[in-house]
């Protein structure tokens, strides 16, 4: 009785395509597990959130590049063949995948010119938020503003294509000069002692922002080396006064960190309300209707 063992020989006979698929699978699995092992060893020892993120993204990009080269060597005969193959496909890819390619170029521009990075607070067009991730085709914001006042987070995550960095206006809250100017305005009645109110506001503004002045001067000097910024900008807190329809308007202008705009406003307002509450000759102004008798209330009548 003759037994046919041809099926067994066929089982262990692989074609070149099968070998390439198997090698690709093994290379991919090896790279993925190697990256995870490296991250597990390193990430647990890193306490800084930003540094941890940079390690995760850096190892991801490095794994992709190494995997591309290894798999390219498996399926093509050397780097030159890879370049030739990609060259033949480039024209068709450029037309069919125009938007993804623009986003990829945008990603390269972000890495090269560094107009934004993870942790920055930015506004691109109408969208504003804190950058929490940058990937090949888009970057991600934790949204601020919108229906929430004073630049606080809304809780929504926004994914913005990298290509929009070429077409929309980008504002970075902390790139170059690390602080922003914030203003708090209020109105007091014309009968109030505005000079006393101004002195009170000056003390409050100085108490809350004077500690940033020396740091801001260093940052300002550093930024002026990179950008054409005039060095005569006053960095100390200031009080500006103007006459409005309803009363005398006083505006506090002070430096603060971009992420602390609302907390500092809250603390300053609490101090203002507390101080003004104890002053009988200072009253807030608001839209009202009143009857004015020139014969008895004018300055001339009051002097008689």
Strand and helix layout:
Layout lengths: L5 H6 L4 H28 L5 H27 L2 H19 L1 H16 L7 E4 L2 E8 L3 E7 L8 E9 L8 E3 L7 E9 L5 H16 L3 H14 L11 E6 L4 E9 L4 H17 L16 H4 L1 H5 L1
Antiparallel strand pairs: 1-2, 1-5, 2-3, 3-4, 6-8, 7-8
Throw out a few tags for this protein.
about 300 residues, 5-stranded antiparallel sheet, 3-stranded antiparallel sheet, 10 helices, disordered N terminus
Shape by Cα distribution: elongated
- The count of helical stretches stands at 10
Beta-strand portion reads 15-25%
Annotation, overall tally of beta strands: 8
* Percent of residues in helices: 40-55%
Strand order of the largest sheet: 4-3-2-1-5
Unreliable spans:
1-5, 7-14
Gyration radius, to the nearest Å? 32 Å
Give your account of this protein's structure.
- The structure is a single chain.
- The chain is of the alpha+beta class and 304 residues long.
- It contains ten helices and eight strands.
- The strands form two sheets. A five-stranded antiparallel β-sheet has the order 4-3-2-1-5. Strands 6-8-7 form a three-stranded antiparallel β-sheet, covered by helices on one side.
- The longest helix has 28 residues, at 16-43.
- The model is unreliable at 1-5 and 7-14 (pLDDT under 50).
Short description:
The protein has 10 helices and 8 strands. With 304 residues, it is an alpha+beta fold.
